Amino acid sequence: MTNSFMSNRRDAIKAMLAISAAGALAACKAGGEANDAAQPRGLVGGPKLTASEMALVGALAQTIIPKTETAGAVEAGVPAVLQTLFTEWGDDNYRMYWREGLKNLEQHFLQTGGQNFAKMVPSQQANLLGKYDAKAYAESGFDNFYKDMKSTIATAYYMSEPGATEELAYEPVPGEFKGCVPLSDQPKTWAT
């Protein structure tokens, strides 16, 4: 009698699961979600940054956050993150803003440095970008794109594993809480 009861119980549970699954799939299908999920996905967004734009982005990122005893922006994968934002996240206005901003930066560096920024030696890149950076932050409204780009580079860097674990002090499970710690005891900002 027990075996009969267990068999019937198992059959009943299987039937309930089948009915629940069928109902869930039908609800998804009605909302269009089941079809969308079944389709293979490639890149969602629009066009990618061109090779010359990526070279400029990489050179700018590496100049803004260079490799020292910790990974630089390029080693942390910042250019790839910016490419993903451009391709998969940004709309047409965002893409136009970035393309126009990068074009204006490249034109400026061609005029002041005589060649593409990515082809300059690092010391020349640092010198020209330092002057541009000082002007961008000194003059209100001067090249807001540059400030946005620099902020995006810094955000992408500190969200990366090397940026969060090597550049910032990182402790996966922080220890005890100390409310008042002299700043001299804390050489780095915390990522946690």
Describe the structure.
The chain has 192 residues and is mainly alpha-helical. The protein folds into 2 domains: 7-38; 51-167, no CATH class. The chain is 65% helix and 0% strand. It has helices at 2-31, 33-38, 51-64, 78-89, 92-113, 122-138, 144-159, 161-167. The longest helix is centred in the first third of the chain and has 30 residues, at 2-31.
Short description:
By secondary structure, the protein is mainly α. It contains 8 helices and no strands.
What are the main properties of this structure?
single chain; 192 residues; 2 domains; flat
SS field, number of helical segments:
8
Helix-residue proportion: 55-70%
Number of domains: 2
Measured distance between first and last alpha carbons: 59 Å
Largest sheet: none
Strand content: under 5%
Which residue ranges are poorly predicted, with pLDDT under 50 across at least 5 consecutive positions?
Answer: 33-43
Sheet/helix structural class: mainly alpha
How many strands in all? 0
Rg value: 26 Å
